[in-house]
């Protein structure tokens, strides 16, 4: 939700989500299309099976991180009246995912809050998305009592006291409606983080008693002026907006909220900064020499890594003949994959064919370019349209496809992968269910569908979430963070989205999260030099690269 000039929330038109998903998936498709076009020519299948005899794969080859198991339980409350209830519920899911890093979250609407309920939790998150929501008097009283830490995001702070003078007296600040000045950034811990251009200006507060109120972050307006964006008063942390929708921006003010969860649920956390790198779209048509060079470069730098593998490559619809090439038919690629594992690589299964049948989904019908577990079209101007589950989608269908992919990998002598990544990150709830049963963790960004969707394209109701630490998502799966995107190309952009510098800038912004993970992926066909440059910049920022299984 965003505020109008008079401070009344109105629904954010989710065009920004549409654009973010379009850009993200377009990047995936363009990068992989280039990768397939530059792969080495396919030679006839060799007469021998890959020789993996005598190899003992290290435990890191397939190890997933443990599921979050903290003891800091939390209560997530969302506004549950008004026409935008489905959006409020989705925000509750996003907040609960972040809270899961610290312990078990419990989520329900604010209207059913019971007197004293928050006292049984380490902390409470309240999501104020509806300015017309009437808060239960028991909730207001319990917040005023200050016995349990509360992270309050967005609207309705003015309901905490009976009048603004009471708020000034009780908390040392007064609430302000939305400031009409454009506010493109939020300043926090010495960094300036972005705000979406269409987000409108947030509400805020005026500090009347600096001895009692600590300003944690500030809204930076277009004219250079600043107003408090996040403050602490006693056990209450107030944030001027429900900033849970980064729309794919790795340097969004959403990172402030991710870090404030530590204040709420684990304030004694020691600061450390870890990093992950994943080599993307390894497949039977990959250049085995390039895979070895990438593994050698990372090994020389002392950098453990992961790689995403799909075991069956299918040509696009226009290829003549249209081939299907299995990993078992390319022993040189199998041996290169084993070589990667021996040099610190963790294998991530990345679908079965990374495409869907004999149709364009949405581009070529070929592996790497197309989606596999979600139906996607394009508009005449190239924008992606997320239509929904693929024909025949069900838990049984997805399970069969995933088990076929596992069998193709293990049939070569390689170990069974325990981590999964959905191609282009898109999946149905049935596919999430199947993956949750077959794998210890996923390594992607979960897609959530708002309950407000009824029919037609899903774009305006589809949310993707990244987190700067391991979480349990709304489907019950442990999710390894990927929050910086990837390097686009060739040609590689000099600056802006998809550039090497954008990856580094995103990592720099992520330093505001006291125990955060900066995670990106990279296509091997771009060569080792660019990857080594990024690795060097990360290490200069103080990041330590770790295997995903050690998070």
From TrEMBL:
SUPFAM superfamilies named in the record: Glycoside hydrolase/deacetylase
Record Pfam families: DUF2334
InterPro entries: DUF2334 (IPR018763), Glyco_hydro/deAcase_b/a-brl (IPR011330)
Keywords, in A-Z order: Membrane, Transmembrane, Transmembrane helix
Entry's transmembrane regions: 17-40
Name of the protein described by the UniProt record: DUF2334 domain-containing protein
Provenance organism: Geodermatophilus arenarius
Record lineage: Bacteria, Bacillati, Actinomycetota, Actinomycetes, Geodermatophilales
């Amino acid at each position: 939700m965003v505020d109008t000039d008079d401070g009344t929330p109105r629904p954010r038109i989710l065009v920004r989500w549409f654009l973010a998903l379009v850009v993200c998936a377009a990047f995936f498709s363009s990068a992989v299309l280039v990768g397939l076009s530059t792969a080495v020519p396919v030679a006839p299948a060799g007469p021998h099976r890959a020789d993996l005899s005598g190899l003992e794969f290290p435990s890191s080859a397939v190890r997933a991180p443990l599921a979050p198991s903290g003891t800091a339980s939390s209560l997530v409350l969302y506004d549950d009246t008004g026409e935008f209830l489905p959006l409020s519920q989705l925000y509750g899911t996003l907040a609960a995912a972040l809270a899961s890093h610290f312990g078990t979250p419990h989520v329900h609407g604010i209207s059913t809050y019971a007197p004293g309920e928050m006292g049984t939790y380490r902390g409470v998150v309240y999501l104020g998305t509806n300015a017309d929501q009437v808060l239960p008097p028991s909730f207001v009283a319990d917040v005023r009592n200050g016995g349990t830490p509360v992270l309050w995001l967005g609207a309705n702070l003015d309901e905490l006291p009976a009048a603004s003078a009471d708020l000034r007296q009780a908390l040392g600040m007064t609430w302000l409606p939305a400031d009409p000045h454009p506010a493109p950034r939020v300043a926090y811990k010495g960094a300036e983080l972005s705000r979406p251009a269409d987000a409108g200006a947030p509400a805020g507060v005026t500090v009347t008693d600096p001895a009692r109120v600590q300003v944690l972050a500030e809204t930076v307006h277009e004219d250079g002026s600043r107003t408090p964006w996040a403050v602490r008063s006693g056990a209450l942390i107030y944030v001027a907006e429900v900033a849970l929708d980064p729309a794919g921006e790795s340097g969004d003010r959403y990172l402030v909220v991710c870090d404030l969860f530590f204040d709420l649920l684990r304030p004694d956390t020691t600061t450390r900064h870890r990093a992950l790198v994943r080599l993307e779209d390894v497949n039977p048509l990959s250049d085995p020499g390039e895979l070895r060079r990438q593994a050698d470069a990372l090994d020389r730098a002392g950098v453990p890594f992961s790689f995403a593998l799909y075991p069956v490559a299918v040509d696009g619809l226009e290829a003549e003949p249209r081939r299907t090439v299995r990993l078992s038919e390319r022993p040189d690629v199998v041996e290169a994959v084993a070589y990667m594992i021996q040099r610190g690589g963790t294998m991530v299964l990345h679908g079965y064919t990374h495409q869907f049948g004999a149709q364009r989904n949405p581009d070529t019908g070929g592996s790497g370019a197309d989606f596999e577990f979600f139906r996607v079209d394009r508009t005449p101007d190239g924008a992606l349209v997320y239509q929904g589950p693929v024909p025949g989608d069900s838990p049984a269908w997805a399970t069969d496809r995933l088990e076929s992919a596992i069998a193709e990998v293990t049939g070569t002598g390689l170990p069974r992968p325990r981590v999964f990544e959905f191609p282009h990150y898109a999946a149905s709830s049935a596919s999430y269910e199947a993956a949750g049963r077959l794998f210890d963790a996923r390594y992607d960004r979960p897609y959530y569908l708002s309950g407000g969707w009824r029919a037609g394209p899903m774009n305006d109701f589809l949310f993707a979430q990244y987190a700067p630490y391991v979480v349990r998502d709304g489907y019950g799966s442990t999710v390894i963070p990927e929050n910086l995107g990837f390097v686009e190309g060739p040609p590689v952009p000099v600056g802006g989205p998809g550039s090497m510098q954008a990856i580094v800038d995103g990592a720099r912004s992520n330093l505001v999260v006291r125990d955060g993970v900066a995670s990106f992926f990279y296509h091997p066909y771009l060569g080792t030099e660019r990857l080594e440059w990024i690795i060097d910049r990360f290490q200069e920022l103080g990041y330590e690269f770790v295997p995903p299984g050690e998070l």
